[in-house]
Amino acid sequence: MKYRTKDETNIDFFAFSSALRASTCALNAVTNTSKFPPVKYRSRFWTLRSVKSPDDDVSMGGMKQYQGKLLTIKIKGTQTSTVIPTSLPAKQSFVSDFRNLTEDEVTGRFVIEVGPDLTLNRERFQSNTNFRFVANLNAVQEWYMINTAPFAHPIHIHVNNFQVISYNNYTGPIGATVMGNKVFFDQNKQQCDRQYENFPNSEQAMLPDYEYNQWLKYRGHAQRWRDMESHPNGNLGYSPSGIFQDVILVPPFSNITIRFQTDRFIGTVVIHCHILYHEDHGMMMVTKIVPAGAKTTGAHIKSGDAYPGQCSKCDPFPFNQVVGECSGSRRKHFNIIILVTGVLATFILFIVTE
Ligand SMILES: [Cu+2]
């Protein structure tokens, strides 16, 4: 989407996801005032148009992109001098830069998985007490948003604005519809052993080549995001590093890291897709913030036996933490013990029978 004057002079470039709040737009406008032309050159008619670019298909996935006029601003009356602020108001105390934290400074980690069937973390919304994660107050959170589906979804987190840290290479599950079932595959077309709660794992589905190749084109968001400045087209919906938002477009087959601090509010926090049709069909879940020092146990993090983001039962959750009985090192040790025990048993059996 581009800002254009009536005579189609391109004066600035903003990328809007479908549900970015006006506050974010205003913030961008203030920070970009140096790019606007002097007042004397401004037209009395301003038109805001949505300009579609085929390059944006990668970040938007199957989402429809409107092309045409969004609004017209007509300026009337006599000209007065207007002072446009050149700087933003001072940040609130809890809004600090979280981009260069150490591991120890992050106290809570969680994964929001956008599914191929209007689900979040592999379930539709169940109730306002079905907490999928519990965080302490005044704790720095590092969350990962992944999209296993070929559509982009604007995900909105209530209460605390979050800082965009990075777009990362996508290594997670590929969610596809096969024979009417939603099935997760890994990056090598193998069916994941972590599926939907009620998915019959015995049913081996195949991911057709054409479908797999179709999904592959959506990967590479990390590089496209890094190249945003130098490539003005084809980056619709990406958010620059470091800005604070409460909604972020999660592109198809993408992996985004965000951080924020839980501030003042204790209670239920809603997370949902901001496409109302999706939200109304269950693409919503709740988390909870409890006082500092209170227990954060009891959350319903898993769906069935799977953590969000998992393909193999040995995949870590979140991405940099190992949980459950299937940690990589313990698994390897277990396998080595089995192997050594087997060799010894065979050797003893051989001695005895001799
Ligand atoms: Cu959605």
From TrEMBL:
Q: Give the transmembrane region(s).
A: 334-352
Q: State the superkingdom.
A: Eukaryota
Q: Which PROSITE patterns match?
A: MULTICOPPER_OXIDASE2
**Could you tell me which residue ranges the Plastocyanin-like domain spans?**
121-289
Q: Which InterPro entries match?
A: Cu-oxidase_C, Cu_oxidase_Cu_BS, Cupredoxin
UniProt enzyme class: oxidoreductase
**Which keywords accompany this UniProt record?**
Membrane, Metal-binding, Transmembrane, Transmembrane helix
- Gene3D superfamilies (UniProt xref): Cupredoxins - blue copper proteins
Q: Does the keyword Transmembrane apply?
A: yes
Q: What is its EC number?
A: 1.16.3.1
Q: Does the keyword Transmembrane apply?
A: yes
Put simply, this protein is called ferroxidase
Q: Which organism is it from?
A: Clavelina lepadiformis
